[in-house]
Amino acid sequence: MISVKCPHCHVGLKVDEKKIPEGIASFKCPKCKEEIPVSVLEKKSKNSSVAEDNTAIFQSVRKGNGKLTVIENADTPAQTFLLQEGLYIVGRKVSVSKANICIKTEDKLMSRSHIRIEVKRSPQGGLVHSLSDNNSKNRTLYNGKYLDEGEVIVLKNDDEIILGHTVLRFNE
To answer: Distance between CA 39 and CA 36 in Å, rounded?
Structure first.
């Protein structure tokens, strides 16, 4: 069983993933009757490569690339990064950073490898952008709530991600 949260009415549902027909694109929420597009994500435990049950928020599949915009503040200039298919490690730009999206900032609360954004092609042909904390020291705020260890979120238009004191905005 996996936990599902309707993106329309936010009701929590339990779904037996073994009973979801292969290739299904969506199903109707029993509460609000709106279509819930299917896009199942897995999370892995920290010490294992085996997937665990997790809460998946089913989202519409995006047709194009996403974009990550850094909002200018006293420590950080405005910056924009295109997100094409692949894995991105986002963090503070320093010479020893392993990030492939390096943010120019003086914000020392942002880790050098703070978050992961994975962009995958869905069976429907669109792109799914998923976000997780990359074991950062100061955690990651997603739309005002801290991400839990191992939690994976499917990004949607205008989502706000805060790394230290630096605000990022995801757009489709």
So the answer is: 9
